[in-house]
Amino acid sequence: MDDFLLILSMKQGNEDAFEKFVRKYYSQILQYCRYHCFDMEHAEDLTQETFLKFIGSLQSYRHMGKAKNYLYTIAGNLCKNNAKKKKDILAEQDALEQQIGCCDVMERIETKICMEQALDKLLPELREVIILFYFQECKLTEIADILRISLPLVKYRLRRAREELKQLLGKEEKNGTGESDSNV
Question: Helices (H), strands (E): how many in the chain?
Fold first, then answer.
């Protein structure tokens, strides 16, 4: 069933339509939130909140063939608000590092943390394009629609984000201590 019919059924109170709609987009929105907040529990909460906000605004929603983009917009706003609370996430990462003693697991965690830190150092508009392109596998035109910017601007931001990530990750690797370079 396409989104138009699902949304029409949802507006009429059809519980099966709500379930089908959520099932259709849940994994994509969860993955998107996961790349923004790096914590599965927070990502699940943000995903649920995204669908609650969508359903809450359903009566005023006008379907124009872009329900997924609207969900990404809601999720993006929720993730931005969540980013302000990152201190809790850093404390959890420190506790996890102290609990785990296995070197292989520690290396994977350190790699993940380096990547998270590099993404976190990008300007928000560059990070958003990277997440949508690489982690959500959106096409450039979809990214332009989701972010409400021009296609050339999406291409520019993607190129610039790649360059900055290459530089950030290169400097962290050269440091050799596993810690990021403080001059970055």
Answer: 9, 0
Name the pTM for this structure.
0.60
Q: Which two tokens stand for residue 180?
A: 């990021």
With b meaning 16 or more CB within 10 Å and e meaning fewer, what string describes 89-127? beeebeeeeeeeeeeeeeeeeeeebbebbbbebbeeebb
Question: Is the Cα torsion angle 120, 146, 77, 13 positive or negative in sign?
Answer: negative
Beta strands in 82-135 (DSSP E): none
Query: Which two tokens mark 64?
Result: 């124009």
CA angle 118, 147, 76 (to 5 degrees): 60
| pLDDT tens, position by position, 117-170 | 888 888 999 999 988 988 888 999 999 999 999 999 999 999 999 999 888 887
Residue-wise pLDDT for 130-140, tens only, equals 889 888 889 99
CA 116, 118, 122, 124: dihedral to nearest 10 degrees? 0
